[in-house]
Amino acid sequence: MSTPARKRLMRDFKRLQQDPPAGISGAPHDNNIMLWNAVIFGPDDTPWDGGTFKLTLQFTEDYPNKPPTVRFVSRMFHPNIYADGSICLDILQNQWSPIYDVAAILTSIQSLLCDPNPNSPANSEAARMFSENKHTSRYPFDYKVLAIFGEKRRLVCYKARDKTWTVLQDAGNSYEDIILFKGEELLATTEIGKLVLCDLDDDGCFSPSVDEIAPPFTFKGDKVYLVGIGGELVMLIRFVQDNPRYGHETYDFEAYRYHQFESEWEPINGLGEWTIFVGHNHTTAIKAQDFKGLIKPNCIYFTDDSLDMEDSLMVGHDLGVFSMEDRKVEPLGCDLSGFMYVWPRPVWFMPSMA
């Protein structure tokens, strides 16, 4: 049956085939002219660059006097797109006009990917991220990652904008830990305590770089960790020994406070009200009083940080609580039978931490 809406949609389809706008495509689903499938290709220099995003357009017999219902089928993280894929766009709501056709609808949605509107958010978290980044980067949601990679434990940087990994050639090898200190300084330490400041910014001419800010110092520990405590940078050194029954076990920790102006590390004997969690994932310090009765202050809670899978499967993991006051290791105080002989090693998981 031919109706005004169906005739108009046939004209829209013919126009879209003859003169398709760049980066979009669309067509009726099977033989149903009232239901369309469409694709928008991610615009350049946006977080969606290189992506292919699918949509559906559901029309009624009121078209073009009323807009279609448009939803993204592809999962989207965007300030103006709801969790169910529906779109907060004025021309699909109170600014609709019969002059708009399918090409105009898809082009408007494509423009929304280029220029989100955080003042009318459908996704508050995406809107917050866009607002925080739009003045510092022309590529919203741009981010960089610093990681320790490979057998030589080198520093590598990933840039989301370029989708590339870069080895920090001047940094050297044998890195043990990385920390974003005070939310602005990206620091890394080697197995012998050399501390470097990493600069991942570049202007297209210079690659990410590192500057040594504290030289190595002599110690006999086995693992090194960095953690921020009350605005101060602290290095923890973990001591591990062989045990015929358990394979390996932690028996001691040392802590050092970093003095920026002297570029020196000062030994400290206690952590005060703080509790530190170390292991194979990110090192974290929290105040014990915020979790009264659950954790002990002035202690280091540790999980296995060994790369020896055979030991972990045969004799169990190296887990416990080290007291900085009496220099002794105690059991964690919880039932560990479910994962003492499994791989990979257990790690700390703190969903409430920022």
TrEMBL record:
CDD domains per the record? UBCc_UBE2A_2B (cd23790)
- Identification of the protein by name: UBC core domain-containing protein
> What GO molecular-function term can you cite, just one?
ATP binding
Active-site residues?
C88 (glycyl thioester intermediate)
The answer to whether keyword Cytoplasm applies is no
User: InterPro entries of this UniProt entry?
Assistant: KIB1-4_b-propeller, Ub_conjugating_enzyme, UBC, UBQ-conjugating_AS, UBQ-conjugating_enzyme/RWD
Q: Name one Pfam family in it.
A: Beta-prop_KIB1-4
Q: Where is the UBC core domain?
A: 4-156
Which family is this protein grouped under? Belongs to the ubiquitin-conjugating enzyme family.
Going by the UniProt record, its keywords in alphabetical order are: ATP-binding, Nucleotide-binding, Transferase, Ubl conjugation pathway
